[in-house]
Amino acid sequence: MRNSFLTAIAPMLWGTTYIVTTEFLPEYGPISVAMIRALPIGLMLVLYFRVFPTGIWWWRSLVLGGLNIGLFFALLFVATYRLPGGIAATVGAIQPILVILFSWPLFKQRPRLIILLVSLLGVLGVGLLVLAPTAQLDLIGVLAALAGAMTMAGGVVLTKYWQRPVSLIVFTSWQLVAGGLILLPLAILFEGPFLQIPSGQNLFGFSWLAVLNTGLAYALWFRGIEQLPAWKVSVLGLLSPVVAVGAGYFLLSQSLVFIQLIGVGLILASIVIAQRLNTNEPTTTENRWSLARTFRI
Fold first, then answer.
1. Where are the domains of the chain?
2. Can you tell me whether residue 222 is helix, strand or coil?
3. Long-range contacts (CB closer than 8 Å, 24 or more residues apart) made by 131-140
4. Which residues contact 20 (CB under 8 A, 6 or more apart)?
5. Considering Cα of 90, then 148, then 218, then 225, what sign does the dihedral take?
């Protein structure tokens, strides 16, 4: 359970992203926020360790950085700025189902029924949160959140499949730089140059997102992908909407209706069941091909 607990810290930190961006960074565009969140901390880590990709890991780092960081951040922040925080977080919680589906063709095995049922329990909880009577849905925001879930799910599966060739923090830094460089031209093109001087409030927001929500959270997340079955890691991601909704309730005085509380209960139940479920899946990086044995009925 120690691995599950450490991995759970990542989505719990991500759950604070929504309140931090809306309260501390309202004057910045979503792509600019995503770029500033990833690129500076990534460059600092790369320059400190001075370990660079070699061979196929140049393009693999670009792909993983795009899926886990670049595209995901851009879509996440578009959803954040167009949807209430709790909804933006919960729409992306279909990720466990997507991880199972993406793993199917990669490992040439069908998913086990119990895994699908546990994941669907979490999706049901998400649906109750998203479809609450007070929810205000925006089509572009919902589509961005769904696309973000797809890119993150693809990143989780490929990270598990390829296995890192270097230390965890260096592996994380490569992806932060790759993702940040993908976002940089998009931020300049769509949101213009960054001319405004950040206020103290802005600096706090950027520091929180870069150090805790990105540097620390992604290191713990990638560690969890190595130590746990990929779908279990994705189910832990459901903690993000729970934290986001809780932050909105306690810090912004946002209202909650009873059906949303039921949704939270189902999400927490799916997380607990998933972590206690023994699927006999390998959890180390010794043999990536043995991961396929888990995906059977």
1. 2-294
2. helix
3. 131/259, 132/257, 132/259, 132/260, 132/263, 133/257, 133/259, 134/255, 134/257, 135/84, 135/87, 136/83, 136/84, 136/87, 137/83, 137/87, 138/82, 138/83, 140/78, 140/82
4. 205, 208, 209, 213
5. positive
Give residue 285's pLDDT.
Answer: 42
Q: What is the pLDDT of residue 8?
A: 95
- List the structure tokens of 178: 């790759």
In the prediction, which pLDDT does 286 show?
39
pTM: 0.85
Q: Which residue stretches of the chain have pLDDT < 70?
A: 84-86, 88-90, 109, 130-136, 194-195, 279-297
Burial of 124 (0-12, 13-18, 19+ CB in 10 A): middle
Block residue for tokens 């206020």? 199
Three-class secondary structure of residue 112 per DSSP:
coil
Question: How far, in Å, are 79, 131, 211, 244 from residue 86 at the CA level?
Answer: 11, 11, 22, 5
